[in-house]
Specification:
The protein is of the alpha+beta class. The protein has a single domain, classed as Glutaredoxin (3-Layer(aba) Sandwich), CATH 3.40.30.10. It has nine helices and five strands, in the order αββαβααααααββα. α2 (56-74) links the parallel β2 and β3 (79-85). α3 (91-104) runs antiparallel to α4. The longest helix has 19 residues, at 56-74. The termini are far apart.
């Protein structure tokens, strides 16, 4: 963990949101330049997921509930999912692991994030989490040098922090995972049936 913390830039919590301001007419949602979107841009429904790479409940959600949401709602074009990092403790580790998928690029973002979530118990418990993370994302084509360069990006660390700060101040987000569907908030790793019911209600 110390190696990862040394590579991370000094993270400054920025209170002003990096808002891009644009939103789709079908489901108006404030967007941020670093938002990552799964699904069609013109999907009638928007799911906003706030999650942390070091949150065990988030990893469970990504391995169990998210695949069902993707299959039944995102892949069918009925909804899009906006993923937003909401770092939790240990702060340095959470922010660092959140930065890596962004550096993989939009085409590989969710694939790298899935690797990090799927192997969370391994790299978080490793003697050297940074090396364990590098090994995990190597499967997606990211090299150790790619990860080292990524963790030096102060602009990205600040943007992640700014967006999380905005989520807390503007939307009252306090914990992970949290979903926002049609203006309604679902807190915790909810089973698919509950998320599905919320989506069906929002679609009416």
């Amino acid at each position: 963990m110390k190696a990862l913390l040394r590579l991370l830039p000094k993270v400054i919590v920025v209170a002003v949101a990096f808002a891009a301001g644009s939103a789709h007419a079908a489901d108006k949602v404030e967007t941020f330049p670093i938002d990552q979107v799964m699904g069609k841009a013109d999907a009638p429904l928007t799911i906003i997921e706030y999650a942390s790479t070091t949150c065990g409940h988030c990893a469970t959600f990504h391995k169990t509930t998210l695949p069902e949401i993707k299959k039944n709602w995102v892949d069918t074009g009925k909804a899009r999912l906006i993923y937003r990092d909401f770092p939790t403790g240990p702060a340095g580790l959470s922010i660092g692991a959140s930065m890596i998928p962004h550096c993989a690029g939009p085409d590989r973002y969710f694939g790298v994030l899935a690797l990090i979530m799927d192997q969370q118990d391994k790299w978080m418990r490793a003697e050297n989490p940074l090396e364990a993370l590098k090994k995990a994302v190597r499967l997606a084509g990211m090299t150790g040098d790619d990860v080292d360069a990524c963790l030096k990006r102060q602009d990205l660390a600040q943007a992640i922090q700014a967006r999380a700060e905005a989520a807390h101040k503007q939307s009252g987000i306090e914990s992970t995972p949290t979903l926002v569907i049609g203006g309604k908030t679902l807190v915790g790793a909810r089973p698919y049936a509950e998320v599905d019911a919320a989506l069906k209600a929002a679609a009416k």
